[in-house]
Amino acid sequence: LVPVDGSGRVDPAQFSAALRPDTAIASLQSANHEVGTTQPVDEVAAACATAGVPLHVDAAQSLGRTDLPGGWSLLSASARKCGGPTGVGILVVRRGTRWRAPTPEDDHESGRMPGPVALPLVVAAAASLRARETERRDEAERLSALVERIRTELPRRVPDIEVLGDPERRLPHIVAFSCLYVAGEALAGELDRAGFAVSSGSSCSSSLTPSHVLEAMGALTHGNVRVSLPPEAEPAAVERFLDVLPPIVERLRRLAGAESL
Fold first, then answer.
1. Is 82 a catalytic residue?
2. Cα angle, residue 61 at apex, residues 214 and 233 outer, rounded to 5°
3. What's the pLDDT band for 208 if we cut at 50, 70, 90?
4. Contact, 49 vs 15, CB < 8 A?
5. Are 198 and 227 a contacting pair, CB within 8 Å?
6. Active-site residue, selected from the candidate residues 48, 82, 179, 204
7. What is the pTM of this model?
């Protein structure tokens, strides 16, 4: 396990130092799912190559959103994150990488997986990724500007709020923040009633357990909210979000008896 800094980013030198002679494989997200911070995959991949260790990259959040990093041996992603069908995973094994499927082998897919694949879903996944790639750069620039608007305005409009993640080395569509004196699930519920679907707690769990990502960053785990802008997000919706959030936070703090803090 390699620690992260306050923005959720690993240090390539620390990652390299964690590689041992008996390390079979290393794994790193291309970008964090919860706070959007992008990782130094290229530098880590170079260290892994020097050590002779294959690197797996989890690109579920970044595929179709940003340029893919280089140097990895295996890359995994989810089709639905690119607008494709649910239930389809993407695994890319770089040529020359030793690979043996963990499932029983038969004569399908050259022994990579047992049984026939759902071809219509695979084609749909490829088509959605290709469509996303044609519009990715313009869309990323547009969404990144909206996220920057949220990151800049939240501290101005809401006291005792912490905007999380790296302000520059980040995904274009994710922004996360934590509010003091407010329960995250209560804040998410009030925003849902206002027409905004956001999440709280850990992004990889349906329970409202404290986020292990924020704990690793040393950030506030209470009152955290994650906003993921969809491709069709409009500036007007962002402005309404910024208008709606402050009175909601103020009301919840008042109910919690924290308005004078």
1. no
2. 95
3. low
4. no
5. yes
6. 204
7. 0.86
